[in-house]
Automatic annotation (TrEMBL):
One record GO biological process: cholesterol metabolic process
Keywords annotated in UniProt: Cholesterol metabolism, Endoplasmic reticulum, FAD, Flavoprotein, Golgi apparatus, Lipid biosynthesis, Lipid metabolism, Membrane, NADP, Oxidoreductase, Signal, Steroid metabolism, Sterol metabolism, Transmembrane, Transmembrane helix
Transmembrane segments: 26-46
Known pathway: Steroid biosynthesis; cholesterol biosynthesis
Full protein name: Delta(24)-sterol reductase
Catalyzed reactions per annotation: lanosterol + NADPH + H(+) = 24,25-dihydrolanosterol + NADP(+); 5alpha-cholest-8-en-3beta-ol + NADP(+) = zymosterol + NADPH + H(+)
Broad class of enzyme this protein falls into: oxidoreductase
Cofactor: FAD
Protein family: Belongs to the FAD-binding oxidoreductase/transferase type 4 family.
Gene: DHCR24
Length: 510
């Protein structure tokens, strides 16, 4: 044992610590980040559980809101010299980049991470903005309820999903995360507290999603809930040929009998399309508890059906289904722990996986950050379903990253930043590319700009957590700024918050 530790230390000395951290990152991740991540998770889980059981959250909520109002008023009293932003450290967010503005803007501390109320009569849950998806499913599913749209990664927060974007494989029925929200409560630039809904302060209600905290601070949201079942009956269908894939995927997305629709595309002309429904009964021999720590990573499990070229049906516990991509962070973890899906690793250490994205970011260092920026893509592009085939071909040509995540969603007409071109609701698809580009000519800026241009041409949208290379004018060509700009003027946001473009563009983040 001692000898192996000595040899290991010697090897680090010979290679250099930098080399080991960059090229053999798994060593650092497995030895330090995995145990630390477990401690983090246990602490937050116990805290949320205790607070909810003691019912102390609603009482403290008003006090916390007053505290935010006080901070905003102080900022005004001091002359409001810089813009304001949330004080949550950039490394704690799921988005891979850290905003430079955090260092120069006035940080408003919003420590609000409690579920305030589950109202089964009105079918609404009221939550604070830092409540995350893992917390919500743990509580709601145990009470027999769920969110109609439950974005998968445990760490995604309500604030981030409302102010940014949230999507799930049920979005072809319910829309984006913003569309299942019925009320937002915000502290505005003048320190006042407002509630907005479809009927009350309706302009603000429509303008908040995608505004990334540039209209006010979210302090609570009311979100629709629906009854939950025990299982998801999931059908796997391997399909070959791009045209077939697109046709079958569109059909499945239009069929409202499917509660869940998702596609994993493994090459230009190979995909597995999954359709699911909720149910309370399961055929025992078809049960698969995919969330257990020793089970294969979900995208690898799905790929087996493609390799074996067979259709299949499985019954998956609802919560396991929701968080199916959490353990492997979609397929990002294979680049960090290449042997992470090996059965031995899964059985011995799978219960510690995944490392927290926040800890990965905090410890990545400048060299890894730059390597990632140049040789790694994380993009979600939302395009009208009628352009899916061209869009996949463009992804193939410009970046060539597989698997691709295909998630359909219904986009209702509206007047916020994101809505279809016409007055009718339109079916869209989120195409997510996460990984190392396979094209030789890949250049992060040029290749992503080409994709962005294509997305603008087909009246699509780019998710704003990703690297956005558009110029300001191109950005406002993609997003509708009419209502947003009017409200920024009316609510005195211009001196209080940066414009959304200045917050998310490439120059604003590192
Ligand atoms: C690896 C990875 C996987 C992902 N997987 C999914 C997925 O499965 N499904 C999905 O839908 N999306 C996914 N996303 C994208 C995700 O939806 C966005 O990153 C989203 O914005 C949520 O991130 P967050 O909770 O970390 O929020 P943040 O990054 O903390 O917040 C996003 C924006 O909202 C603002 N904001 C947050 N809280 C407040 C507040 N209280 N008041 C005012 N402004 C606020 C922030 O300032 C920021 O501009 C993924 C992203 C990555 C990088």
């Amino acid at each position: 044992m001692c000898l192996s530790v000595l040899l290991f230390l010697l090897w680090i000395k010979v290679k250099g610590l930098d080399y080991v951290i960059v090229h053999q990152r798994w060593i650092f991740v497995c030895l330090f980040l995995l145990p630390l991540s477990v401690i983090f998770d246990v602490y937050y889980y116990l805290r949320a559980w205790l607070i909810f059981k003691m019912c102390s959250a609603p009482k403290q909520h008003d006090q916390r809101v007053r505290n935010i109002q006080r901070q905003v008023r102080e900022w005004r009293k001091e002359g409001g010299k810089t813009h304001m932003c949330t004080g949550r450290p950039g490394w704690l967010t799921v988005s891979l980049r850290v905003g430079k503005y955090k260092k120069t803007n006035k940080n408003i501390m919003i420590n609000m991470m409690d579920i305030l109320e589950v109202d089964t009569q009105r079918q609404v849950v009221r939550v604070e903005p830092l409540v995350n998806m893992g917390q919500i499913t743990a509580l709601l599913n145990s009470l027999g309820w769920t969110l109609p749209v439950l974005p998968e990664l445990d760490d995604l927060t309500v604030g981030g999903l409302v102010m940014g974007t949230g999507i799930e494989s049920s979005s072809h029925i319910y829309g984006l995360f913003q569309h299942i929200c019925v009320a937002f409560e915000l502290v505005l630039a003048d320190g006042s507290l407002v509630r907005c809904t479809e009927e009350e302060n309706s302009d603000l209600f429509h303008a908040v999603p995608w505004s990334c905290g540039t209209l006010g601070f979210l302090v609570a949201a009311e979100i629709k809930i629906v009854p939950a079942s025990l299982w998801v009956c999931l059908q796997y269908e391997p399909i070959r040929g791009l045209e077939n894939i697109c046709r079958r995927f569109s059909e499945a997305s239009e069929d409202k009998n499917n509660t869940f629709v998702e596609g994993l595309q493994y090459s230009l002309d190979e995909a597995v399309i999954m359709t699911g429904t909720m149910t309370d009964t399961a055929e025992p021999d078809k049960i698969n508890r995919i969330g257990l720590h020793y089970k294969p990573w979900f995208f690898k499990h799905v790929e087996r059906y493609l390799t074996e070229n067979k259709k299949a049906v499985e019954y998956i516990p609802l919560r396991h289904y929701y968080h199916r991509h959490t353990r492997s962070i979609f397929w990002e973890l294979q680049d960090i722990i290449p042997f992470g899906n090996h059965p031995v690793f899964r059985w011995l250490f799978g219960w510690m996986v995944p490392p927290k994205i926040s800890l990965l970011k905090l410890t990545q260092g400048e060299t890894i950050r730059q390597l990632y920026e140049q040789h790694h893509v994380v993009q979600d592009m939302l395009v009208p379903m009628k352009h899916i085939q061209t869009a996949i071909a463009r992804f193939h040509q410009d970046i060539h990253v597989y698997p691709l995540w295909l998630c359909p969603f219904m986009l209702p007409p509206g007047r916020g930043m994101v809505h279809p071109k016409g007055e009718e609701a339109e079916l869209y698809v989120d195409i997510g590319a996460y990984g190392e580009p396979g094209v030789k000519h890949f250049q992060a800026k040029a290749s992503c700009r080409q994709l962005e241009q294509f997305v603008r041409e087909v009246h699509g949208f780019q998710m704003l957590y990703a690297d956005v290379y558009m110029e300001r004018s191109e950005f406002w060509e993609m997003f509708d700024g009419t209502l947003y700009h009017r409200l920024r003027k009316e609510l005195g946001c211009q001196d209080a918050f940066p414009e959304v473009y200045d917050k998310i563009c490439k120059a604003a983040r590192h």
